[in-house]
Amino acid sequence: MTRTIPRAPLPPLPPVWERLDFLAELDRREVRVPWQRRSFVVRCPLPEHEDRTPSCSMTERDGRWLVRCHGCGFAGDGVDLLAALDGTTPAEWLRLRAQRATPLPVPVPVRRRPPPAAFRPLCPPEELAGWLDACHQALLAGPASAAARRYARQRGLTGAEVRAWRLGYGLPTRLPKLGRLVGRLVFPCPGGVEARAVDAATPKYLSANLLTDGKLPFALDHVTPTAGPLVLVEGCFDALALHRAEVQAVALRGKQLPAQAARQLQALGFATGYISLDADAAPAAVLAVARTLHRAGLTPYWARGPQAAGDWGELLTRPVGELAAAVVEGLALQ
Ligand SMILES: [Zn+2]
User: Alpha helices of 230-309 — where are they, by DSSP H?
Assistant: First the structure.
């Protein structure tokens, strides 16, 4: 007569075993077993079996107790034994236990807030895309956009960058919100645009969002965790400078990160974000961005920013080696 249970591959541990103290359950049913051991033979606890010599073996394997009685032939796991001791079926035993283990519902205070008005896009996406295409072509050639081209060059942008990022020259349009952007340097953003004046016009930057109700960061649609760490900067030129140094960045178009954008970064797979706002940014603004990242599940870090320039964007006019060195220096963590 063998008293060991042959080792065979087990199915995955049923969830009940994660919180079942089998030996304590036996004790509650007045079945005495050696507590310190993970395998033993005792007298069969089943009421039908008058076991005069210990013939019931119990062995813990991978978090689950297995039971076999060599006298009456009972074989099963601890749940089967407890069910038999309680005079019920294993299925019923598990059902009752699950009921007992279900936590009591805790009243959750319901914040009554009016539901936000559903956002409705101001135009079909293809109409915005069409306008952006026309603006991009307009920036590449034509007398009207000469000043905008000159400005882009003066800020250090290359023709390749203008094409890669599809920067544009603001053209008149009947689409809503975009009429104010005529003559400006246009940066396509997810669902909208950011537009920089190319002369002394104020404000320097104008935003227009047609497909979203928040300012989604510039370059949000150009970043991926496989390309390395992510830096959150203030302006489009800042982001372009970092990208030139092969460091991914998104531009917050100001100092605010919409929760929707942070969730999008998390969904893309980013786990961290390096915040590098302009040196004059209020600590509260930095903290707010950090909180938004944190709430979306990203760990925020604070990078000190460029040391020998006012902002990242200024580095675009420097030789590429100098830019790369300044980026490395400026991304040191504080
Ligand atoms: Zn037995």
Answer: 236-244, 259-268, 283-295
